[in-house]
Predict the structure.
Amino acid sequence: ARGSSHGTSRVIRLAYFEHPDYVPLLRRAFDLWDRLERDTGRSIIALTGGLMIGRPESDVVSGSLRSAHEHGLDYELLDAREIHRRFPPLTPGPEIVALHEPRAGVVNPEQAIHAHLERAAANGALFCFNERVVDWAAGPDGAGVRVTTTRQTVEARTLVIAPGAWAPSLFKLASVPLEVERQVLYWFNPVAGSLPFSRDRFPIYIWDQGEGVQFYGFPEESAGRVKVAFFRTGGGARCSAEDVERAVHPEEVIAMRAALCSRIPSLAEGDLVDAVTCLYTLTPDHHFVIGLHPDHPQVVIASPCSGHGYKFASVVGEILADLAVDRASRHPIGLFSPDRFARR
């Protein structure tokens, strides 16, 4: 709960507005999530359909259409009247449209993490929990690494560093400008009851308000709770993993209700039943950082970050294994090169 991968719900979608290059990775991620479910018997993904909502020219709508067209994805474009008819809790203004895609839904991080740990243990992984990394050092000319923790020193040929919000310090790479942003997740009980938000009636969604502000949400979780949060806020509070403010303040709840008021009023008027913090590790272009360390080719670094990475966890694991073993990946990851910022 002190990082970015906790909880019971993350969005997964194919019509990716951030960039069309993510779509092939998403297709592979879906395949690997499906395999993980079969291998472990755990329920990890629930397909609910998804809505990318906003004005036609908004980043969310126009970017999703670009990816859908480039990759031949299945989708419908809905006007405001049709959005409300199909999903009555949503009350968009007349200028609003939505891309609806059937292959979107919810990933359960807790189930996925347990499943990945089970498969890793079955394949011989050694786990060292509650053991803080103090430092790491690479040998000369790509020859090995040494990791120092609070309990031991470990030497190996290759190191993979995927430290979430601790990446700014642990990457040891000044040319990658990472910032950590504090976000808040909210759960409301809808005033008219949670039935209209049930998974067989209500999709995941991202709603672009314009001016750099977007929020997203889910169908009902347990006990009638419905989760919603800001995705982009046009300048959220910067922090570090060590000094983040964990308390949620009244003015933050007011801002969330204000965003929902004219768009999902049954949530805006509902009781707040929970709120927790989450950490986004941000790059300037909001794309991931995945690749070989520019200074140490025996070190692989990964920050599938900027608030939209968890759905890729299955395929990112495959990419990191490729890089660790072969120093190259079978997947297209040029968009995520760690040295792209130094080239600018």
